[in-house]
Amino acid sequence: MAVFHVPVFLVISGYLANVQKSPRQFAASLLRIFIPYIIMECSYVLVASFLPVRDHIEGLSLARLFVILFLQPVGIYWYLHTLLICYLLLFIIKKINAISWHSKIFLFIIVSFIMSKCGIISFNKVSYFLIGYIISQTGTGFLNFFRATPFSILSFVFLSCFSSGRLDYDLLTGIVIVYLAIGMMLYLFRYIHGRALNLSLYIGQNTLPILLFSPIFTYIAKYMEQSLTSIDTTGIIFLLFTLCITIAGSIIFWKAGQRVYLICRHSLTTKD
Description:
By secondary structure, the protein is mainly alpha-helical. Helices cover 75% and strands 0% of the residues. The protein has helices spanning 5-16, 23-50, 62-70, 78-94, 101-117, 123-138, 142-145, 150-161, 172-189, 194-205, 207-221, 225-231, 236-271. It is globular, with a radius of gyration of 21 Å.
């Protein structure tokens, strides 16, 4: 899943991108992503400065923290940084009325490519967002571009099993798998009904908290890996266990945080 879940998130984000807003409305919508990003990235950076993790940071300072947050994010929350830049860049370019739609897309590509050369973003990852946005603007239709067919499932399984581990979504194999993964999920969604459908829709509505908090619960799940793989050497039980506690834990964590926020807000309003 690590191969396609973030690229799919960026494709859908690009497809649903709406920057036809006033500066005030756009700033408010951007804050809903910026605030969670700042909180989670700061938390990750602080942990990485103390623990010997892969992205361990030596000599953390305010200047280094500023560079990490706004220019070169570390760790797992880079996709929020990329999403923020894509939205901001798209909003600015859309305000240029003197050029055509195709010229605006070309300008977006040029600017994002220059930013990637400066090490601020990854052009390959921005391309997924751009693909989704182009699909929406050309009127092609998401379901017309991504075909929901059984062929997607067979092709996805084949590539996953015989790709020799080269499933990076920056590579051609990864790009194809991202395309097939969307078609596969769209096809399987047709056969989900009743409570399973309601559950899947609920999970879909809480994609952001799952992406935000999933690293916490996947890290916790690693402590159970040895005991679960001793029962099932295929790793399927461990996969299902990790999936369940990650989704459930992330949503519960998010809802609890919202509940605490509302209680504090109500308490402050009552005092006033």
